Amino acid sequence: EADIYQTPRYLVIGTGKKITLECSQTMGHDKMYWYQQDPGMELHLIHYSYGVNSTEKGDLSSESTVSRIRTEHFPLTLESARPSHTSQYLCASRGRDRGIGNEQFFGPGTRLTVL
Amino acid sequence: AQSVTQPDIHITVSEGASLELRCNYSYGATPYLFWYVQSPGQGLQLLLKYFSGDTLVQGIKGFEAEFKRSQSSFNLRKPSVHWSDAAEYFCAVGAKNYGQNFVFGPGTRLSVLP
Fold this sequence. Notes:
- The structure holds two protein chains of two kinds.
- Chain A is mostly beta strands.
- Chain A has strands spanning about 5, 10-15, 20-25, 30-35, 45-50, 55, 65, 75-80, 85-95, 105, 110-115.
- In chain A, strands 2, 4, 5, 6, 9, 10 and 11 form a seven-stranded mixed sheet that branches. A four-stranded antiparallel sheet of chain A has the order 1-3-8-7, with no helix packed on it.
- In chain A, strand 4 and strand 5 form a beta hairpin.
- The mean pLDDT of chain A is about 90.
- Chain B is mainly β.
- In chain B, about 0% of the residues lie in helices and about 50% in strands.
- Chain B contains no helices and twelve strands.
- In chain B, strands 2, 5, 6, 10, 11 and 12 form a six-stranded mixed sheet that branches.
- Chain B is globular.
- The chains are: A mainly beta, B mainly beta.
- At the A-B interface, strand 5, strand 9 and strand 10 of A face strand 5, strand 6 and strand 10 of B.
């Protein structure tokens, strides 16, 4: 069973707060991703990781940072949240290609609102 | 560079009617192709994928898609839409070069009339 978890599901915080969005997967996947998505809009890749101690910025510039010190865990941190950070954040993972078109598995998302 | 287009931003169909959602991609070779569905406030769920072989692929929830190399298309179809199919649908391209990330289309929002 493919499982990828995100916590919290919903978060409302004030401007200037530091927050960490958690993402964990139990599939042993080496690749993990963070996407930012406004309601009804397209996905924007903001960070990805190909394995432990490997992180890269995605196509969309983001003030967030990520870390990958364990295979299963890929948290995203905002040092000082602003209203412009209000969005939905989706985490995904992907295993090694075995010639069968392995897909990305998505978590349920975190809906962040910064007041 | 890879790109994915979904020409229809929003489609409305009546329940029981057939559905076709369009997806066109740009890529130098045959990529992996995916269709995902997203319900409001949720993550993305894989409907089906194409990686090789038969160009007509079957997925979950009664969906199917056909890969047409000559048209660089991977259109999603369903013969009879249910009200629960109302959602956002994303087409994605994943290169067979494992080092490259997926490219997602902008999405098509499906509304279903009773």
